[in-house]
Amino acid sequence: MKKIKILAYSLLLMSFYSCNTNAQTKKLSTEPKANKAIAVFAEGCFWCSEHVFEAVVGVEEVTSGYTGGTTKNPSYEQVGSQRTGHAEAVLVVYDPKIVSFSQLVDVFFASQDPTTPNQQGPDVGSAYRSIAFYKNETEMKIIQSKIKELTVNNTFTDPIVTEVLPVTDFYAAEDYHQNYVKLNQNNSYVRNVSIPRYELFKKTYKGKLKSKS
Known about the structure:
With about 210 residues, this protein is α+β, with helices and mostly antiparallel strands. It is about 40% helix and about 20% strand. The protein has helices at about 1-25, 45-55, 75-80, 100-110, 135-150, 180-185, 190-205, and strands at about 25-30, 35-45, 60-65, 85-95, 120, 125, 130-135, 165, 170. Strands 1-9-3-4-2-7-8 form a seven-stranded mixed sheet. It has a two-stranded antiparallel ribbon with strand order 5-6. Strand 7 (about 130-135), helix 5 (about 135-150) and strand 8 form a beta-alpha-beta unit. About 35% of the residues are buried.
C-alpha cells in the first residue's frame, strides 16, 4: 500500500510540474510600446545574459526566453534537448534616448565568446549558440558592421561565428528562470560561471552601467 501511495504521489507531482511548466511559458510581443525599443540576443545561458543586460544604463527590462526555433511554446526541457531549434535568449526593453541599439550590440559582443559554435563556456549545444537578431535593415547593418570591425581589429583569436537573423517568435522562459542570478547567489553555476562572466564583461565594456551593479 505504501508503495502504491508513493507512486501515485510521484505521478501527481510529475503531472503538476509538467502543467505548471507549460503554463509558465508564453509568447511575448516583440513590438515595443511608445518611446521604447526592443532588442533580442542569444549568447549562451540566459541567466548570464539577463544579468549583464540588466546592468546597462537605459535598459528597463530583460526577459529570459527562447527564440530562433520551430516548436511553439517550448519548455526548458524541450529546448535543452537541442531538437526545437531554439536558443536561450533575452528580450531587452530599452529607452533609445538613453542607450542605442549599436551600444547594446557592443554589450552583446563584450559579454561572450562569439567564436565558439554551439557553445558558451561550459554550456554546449545549439541552444547556446550566438545570435544577434535584427528588426530592420538598419539594425542588420549595425550588427554586420560591428562583426567586421571586431574581425579587422583581431579582437578575437578565432573567427566570429555569430548568426545574424531577423527577430522571430520569442517565448518567455518559466518563472523560475527570471532574475535567476539575483535570486540564486549561492547557486554553484551562478558563483562559478555567471558572476565571473559578468565581472569580465564589466572590465571589457566601455559604456555606462547602473551604479548598483
